[in-house]
Automatic annotation (TrEMBL):
Organism expressing this protein natively: Pseudoduganella buxea
Protein name according to UniProt: Glycoside hydrolase family 2
Compositionally biased spans, kind Pro residues: 681-693
Lineage: Bacteria, Pseudomonadati, Pseudomonadota, Betaproteobacteria, Burkholderiales
Pfam families the record matches: Glyco_hydro_2_C, Glyco_hydro_2_N
One BP term from GO: carbohydrate metabolic process
Sequence ranges assigned to domain Glycosyl hydrolases family 2 sugar binding in this UniProt record: 98-167
Length: 693
């Protein structure tokens, strides 16, 4: 038995395991020990080099240094943790304009490119503007602290070593750049968190052929039972061919070969349609049955020589809107989401692959089928686990806080890069480019700001016409495919009065002012759109002596938190006008104490009780994905697989914290520089399919 650590809770309970469909359990059983460390899960090659670990560093607080040759690298930092994080080995939370990084990488024969090969250096994210020098040569400048960039370093090679120097510039006081939840004050306050300066996502290298596959995009359509592949080929040779194989488990769905005449390929694959609902359901992706389709793509020269080979995956999944309902795979689907900030105590916005997987499992154990990742572009490995384990994701753009021409250029460019990065993940079911008028504070009065919000909406629709797009999440909506409302009223019956029946919505839209803001503006009606209560709750549960702790309301202990959570959820589930909800929030995050879990991912109340309230009385309506013929509960229980005892148990409450990068930290403390860490090869573990008829 383990004792809940929440103040005055006094409750003892065992870690609880969720009940999931047998096919999902089978997949989890195969994957629970996976080491999914590839930083780009949807375009993987067998060999890559992970450059995370100790780098030389210099904290250039006043931006005094400009020439990398003059920089005194006087300390060691553990990449990819920012200097503000304890896991970086520095834990320096002061203001700074720049951070300098240096690393020398030895290139063995396996990594040194030949005459027909290239060496690519990838940065997952560097906040906010990065300048990179390779072997003394300036190579690239990239603006945008959340999006990735790549450098072909082949031209700079002259020996078996590669010197990498990075200047990361990030003005802590700039309110016009994309910053998300990063605070502009010296110490975090209210709902803002410590800054994340410099490199904060994996740095890695891979060797590719001179001709290679540089981009993949997957699009599925369950109406036509087709999957489309868009691929970019770098340095395309004459008369080359591309082979594509799609598999559902061991069954080959597509084996295609085409002659490439241009360096951009668009190919439409017609899948064999099983026809009847029970077979179709087992092919499609949903949170209840997250079926994925594996892909292998091979580039051949005219003489048959293999020039490149990559592995990827996709899924049969379509999202759409039909009047006032949200549809998943052409069926109404009710979204039970939770707001997730994506922060950790010792590492801030950075997490290990195991921590990312652990969070996805916890969200599912709490009864949610979706998650809104708030003010952060999350690690692609987290999206991978949402794909594999089954969570619908609303992907959100981190905000700027001031409005200017620089804001417009910076936000739009970075958002385009993030949509491009994540567009093939089946878990993403909606895009959220703007939140609560952040970055457009005069939206009610400034035509330019209204036009900017509309431009973000329409640009996103143009980049991806397959997903709904939110105009301005929360209030002051001039456009959008949904109406999304943030309302933290503490009375469940008042929430029901506002959102319970569609006939009440005209009054609500016209007269209700959450946070004293109009809900819809600029002629946007919204009455015929799906309605989501996309933020509510926010009940804090904390020590009364905590003077900095923050929440929208306060529960005295875990018992009161559970009781109020049940009352809120019961009222929300009665609201037939809603297409779904998003509860605030998953975990405590610094001063915010309104999580269902503590900052260390410990439940504040019995997790099975929280999950029952989350699911509500109608969760069985989505059983179609695992039981399309509608068998009885007795039949399903009789035919369900037994669940491995340790499958969904992330650990006891005392052991739930996962040490982040401890091996790298220990190595740095010992004064050594570790060997370059090889990446994992091949697909990240076997994927077990659902039965296919």
């Amino acid at each position: 038995m383990s004792r809940c650590i929440l103040n005055r809770c006094g409750r003892t309970h065992r870690p609880v395991r969720a009940s999931l469909p047998a096919p999902v359990l089978q997949r989890l059983s195969q994957r629970r020990n996976d080491k999914v460390d590839h930083p780009r899960p949807q375009l993987r090659r067998p060999q890559w080099l992970n450059l995370d670990g100790p780098w030389q560093a210099m904290l250039d607080d006043r931006a005094d240094h400009h020439d990398p040759a003059d920089v005194p690298f006087d300390r060691t930092i553990i990449v990819p943790f920012p200097p503000e994080a304890a896991a970086s080995g520095l834990h320096d939370t002061g203001f700074r304009r720049r951070v300098w990084y240096r690393r020398v990488v030895g290139l063995d024969d396996d990594l040194l490119p030949g005459s027909d090969e290239r060496l690519l250096l990838h940065f997952g994210a560097v906040n906010h503007r990065a300048r990179v020098w390779i072997n003394g040569h300036f190579a690239v400048e990239h603006k945008g602290g959340h999006s990735p960039f790549t450098i072909d370093v082949t031209r700079y090679l002259s020996s078996h070593s590669l010197e990498i120097i990075v200047q990361a510039e990030d003005d802590p006081h700039d309110m016009h750049k994309v910053r998300g939840k990063m605070d502009w004050e010296l110490e975090p306050h209210s709902i803002w968190y410590p800054r994340t300066t410099g490199i904060w996502r994996t740095v890695w290298m891979e060797k590719v052929g001179h001709a290679h596959i540089s981009r993949l995009r997957w699009t599925a359509d369950v109406f036509t039972w087709q999957i489309r592949l868009d691929a970019d080929i770098a340095h395309l040779p004459k008369n080359s061919t591309l082979n594509v194989v799609l598999r559902l488990g061991e069954r080959v769905l597509v084996a295609d070969r085409c002659l490439l005449t241009e360096d951009v390929l668009s190919r439409l694959f017609q899948l064999p349609d099983p026809g009847i609902d029970d077979a179709r359901a087992h092919w499609m992706w949903s949170p209840e049955s997250p079926q994925l389709i594996d892909a292998e793509i091979t580039l051949h020269a005219e003489d048959g020589l293999v020039l490149d080979h990559v592995v990827s995956y996709t899924a049969l999944r379509t999202v759409s809107v039909d009047g006032d309902r949200f549809l998943l795979n052409s069926r109404p689907y009710y979204l039970r989401m939770v707001l997730d900030q994506g922060y950790w105590r010792d590492s801030l916005m950075v997490a290990s692959a195991e921590q990312l997987r652990h969070d996805v499992l916890l969200i599912k154990r709490l009864g949610f089928n979706g998650v809104r990742k708030h003010q952060k572009s999350e690690d692609p490995r987290w999206l991978y686990w949402c794909d594999v384990l089954g969570l619908c994701v609303w992907a959100e753009m981190p905000s700027a806080y001031g409005f200017s021409s620089a804001t417009v250029h910076g936000v739009m460019e970075e958002w385009k890069e993030l949509v491009e990065r994540d567009i093939s993940h089946p878990c993403i079911v909606a895009w959220v480019p703007t939140n609560e008028s952040w970055g457009v504070p005069e939206l009610m009065h400034d035509r330019r700001q209204v036009d900017f919000v509309r431009a973000m909406y329409h640009m996103t629709r143009a980049l991806d016409g397959t997903r709904p797009v939110v105009g301005n999440d929360g209030w002051e909506m001039p456009c959008g495919d949904f109406v999304n409302i943030h309302d933290y009223h503490i009375d469940p019956e008042e929430l029901y009065a506002r959102y319970g029946k569609r006939e009440n919505l005209p009054y609500t839209f016209e007269h209700v002012r959450p946070a004293r803001r109009r809900l819809v503006i600029d002629g946007f009606n919204g009455l015929d759109k799906p309605l989501f209560l996309s933020e509510f709750g926010g009940i804090a549960c904390m020590d009364q002596a905590d003077t900095k702790g923050w929440g929208y309301s306060v529960a005295r202990d875990g018992n009161e938190l559970l009781a109020r959570y049940r009352e809120l959820m019961a009222a929300i589930h009665r609201c037939r006008a809603l297409s779904g909800f998003c509860y605030t929030q998953l975990t405590d995050t610094f001063h915010e104490k309104n999580g269902l879990l503590t900052e260390d991912r410990v439940p504040k109340a019995p997790i099975e009780a929280l999950a029952a309230a989350t699911r509500g009385p109608d969760a069985h309506l989505h059983d179609w994905y695992v039981d399309p013929l509608g068998h009885s509960l007795l039949w399903r229980e009789k035919h369900a697989s037994s669940q491995p005892a340790d499958l969904l148990d992330p650990g006891t409450h005392e052991d739930v914290r996962i040490a982040l990068g401890q091996q790298l930290v220990d190595t740095a403390a010992a004064g050594g520089a570790p060997d370059d860490q090889p990446g994992t090869s091949g697909p990240p573990g076997p994927r077990v399919p659902l039965p296919v008829k």
